[in-house]
Amino acid sequence: MSDNDSTSSNLNCKLGMKSILPIFRCLNSLERNVEKCKIFTRSDKCKVVIEFFCRHGIRRTHNVCFQESQPLQVIFEKSMCSNTLVIQPRVLAEAIVLFTSSQEEVTLAVTPLSVCLKSSSDEPVDLTSSVYSEMFVGPDEFDFFQIGVDSEITFCFKELKGILTFSEATHAPIAIHFDFPGKPMALSIDDMLLEANFILATLADEPSRASSPQSLCLSQKQKRSEPLSSNSEAGKNVTSKAPECILRKVAPKRLYPKETLTDVSALENCGSPIMKRANGDRSEVSESSVSDTEEVPGSPYLRKFSCMFFGAVSSDQQERFNHPFDSLATASDSEEDMNDGSFSTF
Amino acid sequence: MKFRAKIVDTACLNHFTRVSNMIAKLAKTCTLRISPDKLNFILSDKVANGGVSMWCELEQENFFSEFQMEGVSAENNEIYLELTSENLSRALKTAQNARALKIKLTNKHFPCLTVSIELLSVSNSSRVVTHDIPIRVIPRKLWKDLQEPTVPDADVSIYLPVLKTMKSIVEKMKNISNHLIIEANLNGELNLKIETELVCVTTHFKDLGNPPSASEDASQARNPEQMAEVRIDIRRLLQFLAGQQVNPTKAVCNIMSNKIVHFDLLHEDVSLQYFIPAFS
């Protein structure tokens, strides 16, 4: 495709979480017994091999099948966002308990003087509707507080919870980069060992629409590993990136056309990237058409939604800090009808 | 109609939270009655509840440092609200280390009970959390169904054993049968019985003690060994027991043979009455 995967060290693939998780589940027993772990791929057999060299000469090997995949690439320059907040995960965790798990979306409203996390405002009509909650956090609770523009963004609550669980494991502060509603936001965690960026779509302002727009969250998680000190057996540089793309879809329990509903539910479990159409006047984001081997909905989403756009992640560690993510035109097996959309440009 | 109250004492706040948690376990939707001296959580005996009813009463001055209310009218100086109990208990859960908690009746886009909590965070700055709990105001014509239930004269009154023990026994019995017979006598003995085609299981509690009877004649006339029994739905009993997280200060069970079992509990200063009718 592009020069990115010309070298054999770049393998873009996906592994089932159900396959990987049980292998690394028991931290205690791993720490006690495993002396060395070796992970390598055997592309001839489409397998990732995880070998544990344990005590007493025992060697445990796991072969996990992988699927080739084209990772989603994001064009998003977080340093160019007008608003940046850095907060300890614990503080966010305290805010999260306010909201019930039935909340699909949550709104973050910022002014230079205050930050408010609140339930996405719906019009509750009866007793069984959820409670509307809001929490004000003072600027001094943030490790870094820079608000360039007053803004209120609404995004997926489930994703936030997931990101928080992840960050609590690393104990590193979370940086939130965002602008105005409609433009994606980034939540980043930068630890010594890894950097994770979660790009979430935010709900665009839609004054004309009576019913609520669909909410969609796509996130991309990228990890890079530090070079291991010596790994002569591996024979290659372990710092090559293996971007992981996690694509999850939240199907809101709201009214929207039936055909999109079935498409949505079909996609929910297969993790395929979803084709989105953005309105021309939406924002200066570009559309991209990504399709995988699974079904992509033929009918356009009628609701407006902010688009995810993708760019390649630079494989060079230094470059990633300075350059925005490069864009990548992704190959599609089936040509999708693009509605005056423009492909992301290089 | 107005209502505005404030709690500043941590112990009072925790106690109120516990009461609210208990109510949330006992009834999904309940009525909150606000009067100048008291707060009541009420569940009236509708078919939907399986005939179960609940009356929980607390004196407002034991909890609130400030309490102002104005009822529907001067003669009917009360407010009856219907709410989802879990909403209140969840809102209070965030008030664990609060500096102050305020509750008030508001009407933002619809009637709400607004719980506003001032938290003291680690960095010493104040955090304000607000929850708007949707409620429904109950019109005056329905108030008559929500009055304090009259307790009929019981055939037997007995003190209950440790509720946690009772709960674990009833939980196991639930797997065997849907109905449970609760019987007790004036000799301090209480039995929990289940009967199926294959098996009968009885758990005996002894030396429980009986509270002094209101009328001397009735208790003297009755043979102390004679059991008064009620057959009830086991799930209702289990729901009641599950709601009791802490062992109450006082727990009395009143049995009206084949009619109804009445539990009268006192948690510190909060009284709870729970009625489970006989299974017809």
TrEMBL record, chain A:
Location of the region described as Disordered in the Swiss-Prot/TrEMBL record: 209-237, 275-296, 324-346
GO molecular function: double-stranded DNA 3'-5' DNA exonuclease activity
Compositional bias (Polar residues): 209-220, 227-237
InterPro entries: Rad9 (IPR026584), Rad9/Ddc1 (IPR007268)
Any GO BP annotation: DNA repair
Cellular component GO terms held in the UniProt record: checkpoint clamp complex
Name by which UniProt lists this protein: Cell cycle checkpoint control protein RAD9B isoform X3
Organism: Acinonyx jubatus (Cheetah)
Encoding gene per record: RAD9B
UniProtKB/TrEMBL annotation, chain B:
Localization in the cell: Cytoplasm, Cytosol; Nucleus
Species this protein is from: Acinonyx jubatus (Cheetah)
The keyword Nucleus is assigned to this record: yes
Gene it is expressed from: HUS1
One Gene Ontology term, aspect cellular component: cytosol
Name used for this protein in its record: Checkpoint protein
UniProt-listed SUPFAM superfamilies: DNA clamp
UniProt cross-references to PANTHER family, sorted A to Z: CHECKPOINT PROTEIN HUS1, MITOTIC AND DNA DAMAGE CHECKPOINT PROTEIN HUS1
Keywords: Cytoplasm, DNA damage, Nucleus
Function text: Component of the 9-1-1 cell-cycle checkpoint response complex that plays a major role in DNA repair. The 9-1-1 complex is recruited to DNA lesion upon damage by the RAD17-replication factor C (RFC) clamp loader complex. Acts then as a sliding clamp platform on DNA for several proteins involved in long-patch base excision repair (LP-BER).
Residue ranges the record marks as coiled coil: none
Chief place of localization: cytoplasm
One Pfam family this sequence matches: Hus1
Assembly: Component of the toroidal 9-1-1 (RAD9-RAD1-HUS1) complex, composed of RAD9A, RAD1 and HUS1. The 9-1-1 complex associates with LIG1, POLB, FEN1, RAD17, HDAC1, RPA1 and RPA2. The 9-1-1 complex associates with the RAD17-RFC complex. HUS1 interacts with POLB, HDAC1, FEN1, PCNA and RAD9B. HUS1 does not interact with RAD17. Interacts with DNAJC7.
InterPro entries per the UniProt record, alphabetical: DNA_clamp_sf, HUS1, HUS1/Mec3
